[in-house]
Amino acid sequence: MRIKHNKKRNTAFVYEALIVEATVAMLKKDQPRHKKSIQILKKHFRTQNALAKELGCYRSLYENQSLRAEISKRILFEAKQQQNNLNSEEIFESQTALINDINKNLGTSVFNNFVPNYKTLATIAQLFSNNVSPKNQIILENKVIENMSNNTPPFNKSQIDGVTYKVFADKFNTKYETGLLPEQKELLMHYISSFADNAVSLKSFLNEEIGRLKVLLEGSLESLEISSDEEMRNKTNTIIEKLNEFSTKGVEENLLLTVLKTQSLVKEINSNGDSN
User: Fold this and answer.
1) Which of 143, 159, 175 is the last residue of a domain?
2) pTM to 2 decimals?
3) Domain that residue 36 falls in
């Protein structure tokens, strides 16, 4: 079953693509682009505006997993009811304004961003459409219910559509190239996919990665280079304290940046140690 799908008119896809854009810009220290991405998100997805309401209908279907089939059916019914009650003309006009804003301030490349759950978002968009036959409507509903009811395994790159991943990988390696470490790239991929699994895989990765970094940093305090330099000792202890905040504050942008910078620092310390 193939049904035409315009991803620029898929409110949830555009929202997630902007999240990816803001995330990558933040990691690349491109503050102007990060700021523009956040401004567009805040402007067009304000609470209770047309796109925010439609996004809520989408999210109720793609963020709920491991639910009983009966609960999934009830959520699906309610989401369709609420989406049908939205003003379609207002939605279309709001989408047009959003698309124009992105084209003007960020460029059309945003729409090529890799979104891990793209296929699910496309299915939901088709489900919300009034242009499908009764047969296809039932098929789409069953797909959504199955997705909501399944205990989806943690994200891994092998599950991603090959063409979609290549588009993102090419974009990342050219447009945003800065020589990231393998562990930094892995963190980036977990962060980008975090909205698809309620950040389960990201939190799991961060727990392990932060533990690894803390062990290495604590060990570095005993090295001659750091132990003999009071400023270096203080900075290292400050970083360790910031990493400890993860257990109480959860995943935030500042934490992500701290981990990325710490990964580079630890790599540099280890390299210096190997060369001495």
Assistant:
1) 159
2) 0.61
3) 7-159
